[in-house]
Amino acid sequence: MKTSLVLALCVIALATGCRSQPTRPDPAPMDLPAATLVDPLPRAMNLRGATSRGWLMICGGGIEDDHERIYRHFFALADKADRSTDTKSAPRPTRVGVVPTATGADSRGSDTLELLKRYAGDREVVMVPLFKEDIGKGDDQDIAALIASCDGLWFVGGDQSRITAVFRPQDRDTEAYLATLRVLKRGGVIAGTSAGAAMMTNPMITGGTSEDALQHGATWTNDVKEGQGVGLADGMGYLTNVLVDQHFLERGRLGRLLVAMKEAGMDRGFGVAEDAALVVDLQTRQGFAISPRNNTDANRIGVIEVRRESGRAPRPRGRNPWMQDHEVE
User: Fold this and answer.
1) Fewest CB atoms within 10 A around its CB: which of 6, 48, 289, 309?
2) Cβ contact 305:55 at 8 Å
3) Mean pLDDT of 62-88
């Protein structure tokens, strides 16, 4: 396969000693993230069908159970959700929901439920009963109401196509999907790990290896086979005009991300390593990375930003922009 990609790779999460900090106050009394984006995310990169508020936490998979910064940050962001419109019930603690739709494991998400309860304090952690076989339940009013009552949602890993099959079958917005948008509209957070990260964009990457992608290009399918390159399909669309990939360094996925970006016409993508996260503020279009927990190596990378040249002025050469103090407009 022949391509003519001109790329700029930007490391977002570097050594923990990097002094750059997010422009918005850290929502919890913990160490500040390692670095922020040099540029805001594209203005056209918005939330589908809702006011651009809320947060996304895009985790690269393989999150260690004791990675406190990720889990505590998730709950701190959920605490920020506006519950003033919840007039039908008495004041309640922060509520987060575990969404197990992607998993095929016997635990059916119960392990994640118990893990989050360890970090919840006096917050409420509930299971959203939408499993991989529940195609057709996306319009269940009781489930949609439960989702809408949450201040944060955590999508577990597995297969991202199972998520869209339940929430957005044939690119149709179900009541459950619209309820997730209401969580964000109130300033809440949607987090996802592995498949739960891949589903964030529209389109989304559905599978395939870098080697296959570079040899065979891309195929629009939820069930990509060997010889079809990288798979692409409709995603959840919380982010548009960018692509996200996960298990990025550990599984060598730079090649498939590049091919997917070219096929989808995207100029910007993010690869998130295992045990790391990219946090996006949908209101300001800014983001920052949370580095892997065992980041004892100063060169350990959490998130890589990939850009495809499209006629815009090239990034200035010289010092690595991630290694100097900066502010994001």
Assistant:
1) 6
2) no
3) 88
Q: Residues 54, 185: contact at Cβ < 8 Å?
A: yes
d(CA 178, CA 167): 9
Average pLDDT value over all residues in the chain: 81
Helices marked H in the chain: 68-79, 110-120, 141-149, 160-167, 175-185, 195-198, 210-216, 254-264
| pLDDT, mean of residues 274-303 | 79
Q: Cα 244 from chain centroid?
A: 7
Q: How far apart are CA 132 and CA 159, in angstroms?
A: 9
The dihedral region occupied by 79, where left means phi > 0, alpha psi between -120 and 50, and beta the remainder, is alpha
**When comparing pLDDT for 143 and 317, which is higher?**
143
Q: Which of these, 92, 62, 74, lies nearest to 152 by C-alpha position?
A: 74
The CA distance from 138 to 168, in Å, is: 8
Domains of the chain plus CATH, in order, are: 7-309 (3.40.50.880)
Please tell me the predicted confidence (pLDDT) of residue 295. 58
Tell me which residue of 124, 126, 119, 33 sits closest to 71, measured CA to CA: 119
